[in-house]
Amino acid sequence: MKRPGVKRCAAALATCAAMAGPAGCVAADNPGDPFEGFNRVMFSVNEGIDVVVKPVAQGYDAIVPGPVRTGIGNFFGNIADVWTAVNNLLQGKITEGASDTARVLVNSTMGIVGLIDVASHLGLEKHTEDFGQTLGKWGVGEGPYLYWPIVGPSNVRDTIGFAADMSADPIQYIHDVRVRNSLDGVRLIDARASLLPTDKVIEAAAFDKYSYIRNAYFQMRRDAVYDGDPPPLEDDEDDGEENEK
Prior knowledge:
- The structure is a single chain.
- It contains twelve helices and two strands.
- The protein is mainly alpha-helical.
- The chain has a two-stranded antiparallel ribbon.
- β1 (145-148) and β2 form a beta hairpin.
- The chain starts with a helix and ends with a helix.
């Protein structure tokens, strides 16, 4: 059930409170969301699925010891580092790609198949890159906003990128169905458990949860594509020109 996009959804939701701000709480027509009717239906479907997933994640968070949860997160993070390395190389970021490759080698060996994040202690910074970001680096426009069950917030570009992410996920090539599904399930619950601290913040801050998450996603993905230094939006440039006048 779980696919690489769940981590992307987790990242988007986890940064809602920090990045969207009060503006993200207001529902408004958004030109980047022409399929809002469809997306809100999918959002409701996802909320229905979460009625089942969230209690399981809460139980996981309450019962599984912290060090074990950390090890599980490190294990799946080590798998993700493989695809991150590929995407950094595809984006022409050779130094980062080499660092990510070194992380995988170090954590897969010294870190006991990734359970311990030895690489970070050695100064090898963890990066997060997916194929949607790579497409953005290549100049592919994001396209309309889309919301998918399980996957969560996305857009046309990131949906295409998600298909590539999914096909590159090593876990999906495990032939034993029970092992593959078990790993998928644990990864999904671990990702959902990581969002639990954010839930109350979003619920308290968002007048319209759907709009709040959408606006945070726009900002987060733009920031991710430009490595934290996005160019100003057209509206910002217009405001700046008026202020100069």
